[in-house]
Amino acid sequence: MQDTPTQENPHYSAKRRFDAVIFDIDGCLIPEDSSPLNASALARIAEHNRRAIGEGDRPVVTVCSGRPHPFAEAMCRLLHNTTLPCIAENGVWLFFPDQNRSERDPAIRPEHTEAVMEATKWVETELGPRGVSIQPGKASSISLFHPDPAFLKELCPMIEQAFRVCGWPFRVSMTWRYINCDLAHVSKSTAIERFIAATGIARERLAGVGDTQGDMMIREHVAWFACPANADEKLKAHADYVSAHAEIEGSLDILQKLCQG
Ligand SMILES: [Mg+2]
To answer: Residue 58: which domain range?
Structure first.
């Protein structure tokens, strides 16, 4: 039985059950709308991470999000994650804070970039006049926003149909407020596999937290999974622990649970 860091997993510590906990951002660490972040609660997670990295007695918190790279990088730095890659844009990017290095999924080829550009043009032409806008900052995917999420949801089938007809290889999914159009072969799942390969932290040493059905991709790659109270009921059914508290209060409760072993 391994009890010290090894070449395979330099992040291993016998003082903790898990070496890392992978958090979705929206709905878990921050509200998905544009309301203020709970900075004091986030500072408590940063304090957790300082101890996790200094003492090795608790898992290091990193993030795995559909948010654009700069947002995920800022969260990673705010949370004092100085050691583990974070995942941005639903798997397009790994950002390595210890090296200040960003790595786009090498499986994204020029033809995929071209499909993103063509689909962007289609969205602007067809959906722009109906009040749909594109979330700024994404490189190899498209997220659509409309002030009325119900209206956005109604558009989903016709968007899927249009992408199919045009041969653009996207997976179309809905969060609480956005439609995410992601390259079909890139996901939180493929990114966590890259994370595991880069860090050496295997599934049995990983925990995860999420709130929407897309976070099943986190669930499937971790040994222990938790949800805050606001999570989708269908996802909660797959959780090892569901906090009685919502969003970041729920996440702080989950971290406490993880520290108890
Ligand atoms: Mg979420």
So the answer is: 20-104+186-259
Distance (Å) from CA 168 to ligand 1 centroid = 25
The CATH number for 213's domain is: 3.40.50.1000
Residues with a beta carbon under 5 angstroms from ion ligand 1: 24, 26-27, 211-212
> Which amino acid, residue 258?
L
Question: Residue 70: which of 24, 112, 102, 38 has the closest Cα?
Answer: 102
The average pLDDT across 143-159 equals 95
CA of 163 to the centre of ligand 1 (A): 24
pLDDT digits (tens, 9 = 90+) for 5-60: 777 899 999 999 999 999 999 999 999 888 999 999 999 999 999 999 999 999 99
Note the pLDDT tens digit of each residue in 115-135: 999 999 999 999 999 999 999
Domain count, the chain: 2
What's the 14 CA to ligand 1 centre distance in angstroms? 31
Task: Kindly state whether residues 85 and 150 are assigned to the same domain.
Answer: no
Residue where a domain terminates, one of 140, 160, 183: 183
Confidence of residue 260 (pLDDT cuts 50, 70, 90): confident
64 pLDDT more than 50: yes
